[in-house]
């Protein structure tokens, strides 16, 4: 990377990152701020494949963005440093932008994983002790992603899709997260 590219990257990251949530987002509405930091992920399932006990790992990094009105993350599988040149089956290097919508009183979520041409849009809210994000894919298939078993040191992330029968949810992705920084 040359000097101009390096300076441009620093300027971009400085403009994107925020030190914390915006003052106009109330504490009760801040359902994602606890995620800020870095996480190690044990992959239990991905693309419906049961990977428990296989040692598949991933990493995720979360931070405040856009003047504190959004949380952005990066999910990477396999983790950097262990990534093969190209793993077509289990390749994830994507980002989520969770933006606060004061009119909706919920978070608008946009996920993209360019490594697999996968995109999702959802709405996120607290439901009991979980954070639940719901949406539908371009083909109309309903999706539900949940942060469950939330503690200061970990969480269980479950990504589900609604079967064509309209009543059965099936797990497409599942991760156990452990905080490593933040």
From TrEMBL:
The protein's name: DUF1579 domain-containing protein
């Amino acid at each position: 990377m040359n000097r101009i590219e390096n300076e441009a990257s620093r300027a971009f990251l400085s403009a994107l990152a925020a030190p914390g949530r915006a003052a106009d987002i109330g504490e009760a509405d801040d359902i994602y701020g606890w995620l800020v930091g870095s996480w190690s992920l044990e992959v239990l399932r991905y693309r419906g494949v049961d990977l428990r006990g296989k040692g598949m790992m991933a990493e995720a990094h979360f931070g405040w963005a856009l003047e504190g009105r959004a949380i952005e993350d990066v999910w990477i599988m396999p983790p950097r440093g262990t990534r093969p040149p190209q793993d077509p089956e289990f390749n994830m290097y994507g980002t989520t932008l969770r933006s606060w919508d004061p009119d909706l009183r919920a978070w608008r979520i946009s996920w993209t994983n360019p490594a697999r041409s996968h995109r999702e849009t959802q709405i996120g809210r607290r439901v009991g002790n979980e954070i639940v994000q719901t949406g539908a894919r371009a083909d109309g298939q309903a999706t539900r992603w949940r942060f469950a078993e939330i503690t200061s040191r970990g969480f269980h992330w479950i990504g589900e899709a609604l079967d064509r029968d309209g009543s059965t949810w099936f797990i497409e992705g599942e991760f156990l997260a452990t905080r490593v920084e933040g």
